[in-house]
Amino acid sequence: MTAQELQRTSIEQSSQSSGDVAVLKKSLTTDSKQPTSHVVESGFVSSDEADAQALAALGIEQQFLRDLGGLEIFSIGFSIFAVVPGLAVVFAYSLEGGPVAMVWGWLVASIFIVTIGLMMGELASAMPSAAGIYLWSYKLSPPWCRRQISWTVGYLSTVTSTTALASVNWATAQIILTTATIKTEGSFTYSNGAVFGVCTAVTLLETMICCLSTKAVGRAELLFLALNIGLILAVVIAVPIATPGEYRNSASFALGDFETGLGWNGGFAFVYGLLGASWTIANFDSLTRLSEECSNAQVAVPRALYQSISIAGVFGTICLGAITFSMGTDLEAISDTDLGNPLAQVFYNSLGKGGAIAMWIFIILAQIALGTSLLLASARQVFSFSRDDALPFSGWCKTVRANIPINATMYTAFVTTLFTAISASSDYSSSAIFSVSIVSMYLGYSVPPICRYGFYDYNKDFRKGPWHLGRFSFVIYLISVVWMVFMTVIAMFPASSITSFSEANYAVLVIAFCLFVTALYWVFPFGIGARHWFVGPPVEQDPSLRDQIEPKPMTETS
């Protein structure tokens, strides 16, 4: 039997090697007093078998190879929270508030975002499944409402996954075309149609990469990690050193200047600048989507979550500090640049045309790595929701080939392309998709913690995983929910206080429409509506729990 065949049989069998024993012991030392979701009656089991048992405890069959380790999961997170590529996308938003909004706004937002990662880490350790927040919402809700809640959260999560990838790939296409603008010093311009064409090609490339084996993608993620670290070092070291004296700023300006370029008053201009970090350090549940392909998932996934978020927050603050010291004081000239991207103008001023183009090429590669990592996780979300027959064409989407959700990957890419087509209709449409990805994300993320403590009597015996927050759970959950509600409201505001009807932020209408369609699909009569047939995700195979997942009769269903 070949090594690859042995690896594939590890889904059903596990070795009793001393190395496996060491891995298991290490995972259990996270909290020796806290029961884990896998129980071993005698002897030891391998990490893969323990993971499979934890999954089986949720009523889910192991279908994927666990070819991802803790480093690969961290690399995926760091690629999704891509600091420098993210700055290239959101720099224009933060710039309008000046250096204060850029540097300190990023730092403040990062601190609160870490609480979301901690909250998700605890839930991911307790319920390690690709279903993520959809499964958590179901498990933490009482029987009378769990199907409706998980149904809504599942669709919110699907909207988040596809709109986030659409906004990322749309930005990637713009960055690619900006390279030509830099090369021609502003004479090259492009239309939304050109952006859509490049965006579609980028999505196709990412789809091809994600259809490779999990092990191959995991190795690629290590290269993506090195690429992002290299970009951070270039911004922090090369840009300040190369910046001509005329563009170097004092500490009082770089860390203390405040602007109100969007027409908002000072306080709201700072608050609006928080969206930069909120869009860049986002889609945290992407790591939880890979729980079924990660070894020692109950510890590796939550650890990678808070580590990657924390490091992205720190490095983002440092990078923005380096930029504010090196961009000069004429913020209006940077904002109105002919190059089409304010950060490109900063690099052009500091590094010259050649240096700016070189930096931009590496940003393009990192942005494609971001999209690939996001598609990898988004496809798992679509697969897990289809596994419970919730999405159209679920039978096709949940088919796994070569231990990879290839069909779900293509489905996700197709829906993403539809959203990018909407973005091509106008500049304001692309801004709406940007806002929708944040609003739907935070709405969905807030449901599990609210259910955890909102239905406290039902969850008073909640069984934590080996990685948990202990006595600080409630406080961290509360802070994370308040922050998410706050940023949801902010994301619905238009970019400027002086806004015409055509320039308004229609994210609230898009979200309302999605929720309306989701609710309509639920209540529709004649046996078509999901209330008649949707049972939600699997639960433990305990006969006493079957009444919790059987659909209620039509007369009893609200």
Automatic annotation (TrEMBL):
* Pfam families documented for this protein: AA_permease_2
Where is it located? Answer: Membrane
Q: Which GO terms describe its biological process?
A: amino acid transport
Question: Mainly resides where?
Answer: membrane
Ranges that cross the membrane: 73-95, 101-120, 222-242, 262-284, 304-325, 357-377, 408-426, 432-451, 472-494, 506-524
> Where are stretches of biased composition, namely Polar residues?
1-19
Molecular function terms, GO-annotated: transmembrane transporter activity
Q: How does it sit in the membrane?
A: Multi-pass membrane protein
- One CC-aspect GO term: membrane
Q: Which InterPro entries match?
A: AA/rel_permease1 (IPR002293), Amino_acid_permease_CS (IPR004840)
Region annotated Disordered sits at 1-22
Tell me which UniProt keywords the record has, alphabetically: Membrane, Transmembrane, Transmembrane helix, Transport
Name the record gives this protein: Amino acid permease/ SLC12A domain-containing protein
Query: Could you read off the lineage of the organism from its UniProt record?
Result: Eukaryota, Fungi, Dikarya, Basidiomycota, Pucciniomycotina
Gene name in the database record: Mo04233
